Give the backbone structure.
Amino acid sequence: MNEQRSQMLANFRVEVPSWGFSQSGTRFHAFEIPGQARTLEDRIDDAGLVQQLTGAVSAVALHIPWDETSDYQALQERVEDVGLRVGAINPNLFQEEIYRFGSLASSDPEARAVAVSHCLECVEIMRLTDSKGLSIWLPDGSNYPGQMDFAAAFGRTVESLQTVYEGMDADQTMLIEYKFFEPAFYHTVLSDWGTAMLAAQDVGPNAKILVDLGHHPMGTNIEAIVALVSKYGRLGGFHFNSRKYADDDLTTGSLNPYELFLIFVELNKFYNLAKQPGDICLVLDQSHNVKCKLEATVQSVTNLQLMYAKSLLVDYDKLKAAQESRDAVGCEELLKDAFDTDTRPWLQEIKRQQGLPEDPLQYFRESGLKERRIEARR
Ligand code: PSV
Ligand code: MN
């Protein structure tokens, strides 16, 4: 395999979410999964273990207050001890009573003030932990026609985001995540890439869009969104996961590998994803309610590596030429050729060179690591 491409594949990194390791559930029940993390330290150790197994983790993304602590410097040291950085900091704007009618968009000035001040507290945590991304998702919206004035709610959101942005440093990025429904079912304030883009443009140059793969209506062409937002310099990052129906938070690549590959194809046109630290923030956002959480995270990281590898096989010059000569079949065949190539032997070869287990899942299961983790957390 071409040396440069191998180097790129070897350098690919993704952030893992602390919340992907602890107990989660559906609105019906949260099951106990053997070995799941119980403390903040467990979550960091799990992120470190995924890095030890895959070599492809850059950072652990945190959610506040789920990962709140009295000593953020100690937290950062622990993260560095497991070979990682503190990744994006996610404020939580959805679990306070005062947010019943919204957070940054609320018509209640007190609710807005609480939400803004929580985001600013997260900016302070970023300073203490040297994190560069403030990843904001707001649940704001309405359930019934007439309940909320759409334009006014959007205006209040922009104003709140501007206040947060003014409190941020020049080397910090605000990531604005959109989602088309849930928890609101009639209208959502930041429902799609267009509304997030309008907000980002009003907020400032370091306000970017975050694309969560589970946040679009069925059939949305996410790769086309990626291309447009990138063209306008506004792509800030990703929340990777997989979905069948809505925001299912399943293992990345489990249901949509071709879509994932096509997203990487667009990303490669704009960014060098092998550059570390990267220009965009690639994060998993999943909650594993059936699988061993650590195994699901390893699977997700591996699926990302394999799809990224396939995207590196595309001949982009040939693709451009075929597009310009309007050869629809030729274009598609170029992509299919790359997608149909088995990239597992290539990734295994890289892992051998890096001294990593060729099959991280098998290693986790057979080396005793899995049992020891379950035993220690009983
Ligand atoms: C909302 O569904 C979301 O995708 C946001 O990123 C939240 O921070 C995260 O999920 C919570 O799990
Ligand atoms: Mn998300």
